[in-house]
Design goal:
2 domains, single chain, Rossmann fold, alpha/beta, 318 residues, binds adenosine-5'-triphosphate
Length: 318
């Protein structure tokens, strides 16, 4: 077993009646990492998180949190995890402070420790000003913060957040995202999302999940590098279409090309290089030799969105 591992999932499967929600997945999250579980609705993200948080038993496989088995040592695991479920079950009639104190006591903190910790997490989550407000009357953004404060109140090592920004407006999303980033300095965080920029911005590593399986796992930067092998070069050149096409046909490193008319004498060439080679310098020299004007020469970079769409594509087309 890996001493630095916070989460170790080995061959985890979860079947609901007649349906496999999670299918033989394995992954490890090291201490201090902030990992995104990215996938569309129904990918199995919530199921995986609920098993990790001891809310749901697995059908097969082993899951360990900080070295403790989630099935046999669930009390230990619960102490170490702060879990914010997707539809956070807050008590709408309670006041913020009262609710957090109640939750802290439920999690086994003494009365005194509860008071101290509630003050700390309210400050951390920007709730101090609304501490006497009734939860049901708060905006969704503030209710999410209460959920986050609840997840943090017992000082867990690992924070698991299931779609923490779902249903929030862009301002609220930004502030919850900043909160999560702040947590990452002293905690291990596993956060699920189907919002791509969220994974790109907040996570050091991303696991892309689809139909119960993990299709890709790497840092957002490395996933982009992998995709670079399929990158494209865009060149806008003032030259006749026939000459451009003939020119691209003669370069063996150009695997595919597409020439379309742009404004005036310019044509837009989209070139797919073989093995992702960067052909920009070569194209520039070639255009110079032939006396062609070039007004754009770029290499497209793939965002996580492209990767996500690419890895989930085969099934989307079914
Ligand atoms: P979402 O973003 O919509 O929450 P998700 O990636 O979290 O999606 P899960 O909620 O884990 O996905 O669901 C995975 C699959 O398991 C889905 O097909 C879902 O319909 C099914 N599922 C989830 N909970 C149950 C249940 N209690 N009984 C039967 N099927 C379930």
């Amino acid at each position: 077993m890996n001493d630095n591992a916070m989460i170790e999932v080995v061959n985890l499967t979860k079947r609901y009646a007649g349906h496999t929600a999670v299918s033989d997945i394995s992954f490890t999250v090291q201490r201090g990492e902030i990992v995104g579980l990215l996938g569309p609705n129904g990918a199995g993200k919530s199921t995986t998180m609920r098993i990790l948080a001891c809310f749901l038993p697995a059908s097969a496989g082993t899951v360990r949190v900080s070295g403790c088995d989630v099935f046999n040592e669930s009390r230990e695991v619960r102490r170490r995890i702060g879990f914010m479920p997707e539809n956070n079950p807050l008590y709408p009639d309670m006041r913020v402070r009262e609710y957090l104190k109640f939750r802290a006591r439920l999690k086994g903190l003494t009365r005194r420790r509860s008071r101290e910790r509630v003050d700390v997490v309210m400050e951390q989550c920007g709730l101090t000003d609304v501490n006497k407000r009734i939860i049901g009357q708060l905006s969704k953004g503030y209710r999410q913060r209460v959920g986050l404060a609840d997840a943090l109140v017992h000082e867990p090592d690992l924070i698991i957040l299931d779609e923490p920004t779902a249903g929030l407006d862009p301002h609220q999303i930004r502030s919850v995202r900043q909160l999560i980033k702040g947590l990452a300095q002293s905690h291990t965080v596993l956060v699920s999302t189907h919002i791509l920029p969220e994974a790109e911005m907040t996570c050091s590593r991303v696991l892309i999940m689809y139909e119960g399986r993990i299709l890709a796992a790497d840092s957002p930067e490395n996933l982009q590098k992998i995709m670079a092998s399929n990158s494209q070069i865009i060149a806008e050149i003032a030259a006749p279409v026939a000459e451009l096409e003939e020119c691209w046909l003669q370069i063996p490193e150009v695997e595919q090309f597409n020439v379309t008319a742009a404004e005036g004498e310019f044509n837009r060439c989209a070139l797919t290089p073989r093995n992702g080679e960067d052909l920009r310098a070569r194209i520039f020299l070639l255009a110079k030799e032939r006396g062609w004007l070039v007004r754009e020469l770029t290499r497209s970079r793939h965002s996580l969105e492209d990767i996500y769409l690419q890895v989930t594509k085969p099934n989307e087309e079914e």
